[in-house]
Design brief:
The structure holds two protein chains of two kinds.
Chain A (H helix, E strand, L loop, with lengths): L1 E5 L3 H14 L2 E5 L2 H10 L4 E4 L8 H10 L7 E5 L4 H8 L3 E4 L4 H12 L10
Parallel strand pairs in A: 1-2, 1-3, 3-4, 4-5
Chain B lengths: L1 H28 L9 H24 L3 H25 L11 H40 L5 H58 L6 H8 L8 E8 L4 E9 L11 E2 L3 H8 L4 E3 L18 E10 L2 E11 L6 H67 L6 H31 L8 E3 L1 H18 L3 E6 L6 E3 L1 H18 L5 E9 L2 E7 L33 H11 L3 E6 L6 E8 L5 H6 L1
Classes of the chains: A alpha/beta, B alpha+beta.
Amino acid sequence: MRVLVVDDDQGIRELVSTALTEEGYDVSGAADGAEALDRIAETPPDVILLDMRMPVMDGWEFARRYRSQPEPHAPIVIVTAALDVAKDAREIGADGFLAKPFQIDDLVALVEQHAGPPAGGDRLN
Amino acid sequence: MRDGLLLEAQRVERAIARARWGAAAIIFILGPSFPNLSIVAVYVLGLYLSAYNIATLRASGRARSLREHDRIAKFAFAGDVTALSVAMFLFSSDLLWTTYFAGTLIITAAAFRFGTRGTIAATGILSVAYLIVATYRLVAFGYEFAPQRAAFNISIYVLTGFLVDRILADVRKLRVDREDLIGRLQRRVAEDEALAQVTRIVASVPAAGGAVPAIMRASREVVRFDRATVFVADEEQQEYRIVHRLRSDDDRSPPARRIRFGQGLVGAGIAADRAILVRDALDDPRYGPRDRDEIRRSIITVPLKVGGRPVAVFSMSRALPDPFGPDDLRVAETVGSLIAQVMENERLFEEASEAEALRALDRLKDEFLAAVSHELRTPLTVIGGALELLDHASADLTPRSHRLIDQARRNVQRLQHDVEDLLDLAQLQEAKIELSREFVPPEALLAEVASAHEVIATQRSQRLVVDCVPGMPPVLVDRRRMQQVLGNLVANAVRYSPEGGSIRLRAERAVGEIRFKVLDDGPGIPEADRERVFDKFYRLAGNRETASGTGLGLAIAKTLVELHGGRLWVEPRDDAQGSAFIVAVPLEAAPVAAEVLS
């Protein structure tokens, strides 16, 4: 299962990548919406973890462009530090949301819910 | 102007004097050739005429005032009437008796010089003189006294007097009208010029506050006043406050008294829809209490509408005897409306800049909040997540490393909590938080809160005891926010209770509400501090060292409870030592489904 992390903060990309790789996911990162669209063109992900406030192309613009591409679309989960994350999620019609700061366990659970268990089963168990 | 009139009168007098010289010459030269009673008397009459003519000329030349000159002219005129009457008598033996024709000349002169009264006097005296002389002619010389002839001659006098007087009255009236018109026009032009100047001054005053005094100073060009004042109604102090005042340099009157709300001419002036003119303030019942030595003054008040309401008065006053007139009233109204406009502009300007400042502050706050939420939350997430991952890899770690990781994680959580507190409070203050309410059974709420705080209580060897009868009606609350409220209270209780103590969570039903209680066995809170513990950043004395957190927990809890329409307070426990924090949430009618569920 492939996860795409779109966040301008390198620390978040590394943390999510570390946590989900340990769980057995295949994780790639993008620093903004434009870069994310490039990554998706190379290898379509199974779930997209999306920050909203980013330079170059923000989450709203990314969601609009991604949705305008032909099907299939991977579910989008918003991971952001807004005052009202649910509102952001409603605005772009996201499939799920997670407010920063989050617990690793919550992140893993949310990814599993939208992308299914990692390929080849859970390595740690 | 006055001197001009005097000179004019003297010029007229000199012209008449020349006419008298002519009359005297006729008397001296032609007089003896007409039949007369006495040749000596004729010469005496000529001398008399010459004598008072010289006297009149000299007196007229010396006259210092128009009034004095008027008296002299009247004496001279009496001399003229007398001279003519005597002449009529002296020449009464003349068959044709022509002297009476001169009467019309005298009457005409009287009309020109002394108006209606002079005309009537001259006509009357000469008519009587005519009748007397006619009678004398009948008695002395046997001339026929024909009543119709006498009536005709007197009618000529009366008609002359009447016609000339009427014509002159019309001329005078026309002249007065024209002068009045010219005066009014001149005044109007001067007013317009002055008002234009006032407007220019207003436009050129750079500081907003200086415009009204500038208008008041400039309006002196248009209307004379001793004192001009702008009063503003101060509803809080219940009196009228002087905001602008301009006095003449010689105004020695004492400073203005305080004028109570709704009283005095100022009160009447504000209440009135239009400007009020008071000729003598001391005679006006509306005028407030007066000083013993107060000067009689005439006052104009103009109501000023600021913010759509008449809340101010522009007043002008002037010492008697010289009351204001309708012209002054009109100017005062114009000046008043200018002042009102300026004050309204100042008010709008102030309001706008205040609102602008508030908006800017608001924007700054929003930006700050967004920055805090982003800049702090993101690195905290990374640190917390990394520590969590590190902790999971337990096999590689020594017990010491575990302890250190644990310590770091606790402090990251604390920092996260503090950031959330700050954000919550900021949002609560802006009323930005919206509650999403649902019906929640009280015991469920307490159980959730207790389990969430089990860990921190255990760390201090404390017990959390939930004490709740099942089957209580559900409360309509924002589940997450109410957990936050009770959580803050429990965290507070854990902080202030001794190690090994116990914390009780209770829910009780009261009239129309459910009361959640968090009971600790700490030292208790002195009565004086019981209100203040809910203040932001407040800490109980002596606990500054031990207590952690931002000191915002209780303030946030109270605001959230009030957002629910409930109350939060603290009282001493009645069953043991310690404090009871009580959250009262009003009971709403629960839907049937919720009743069944509970």
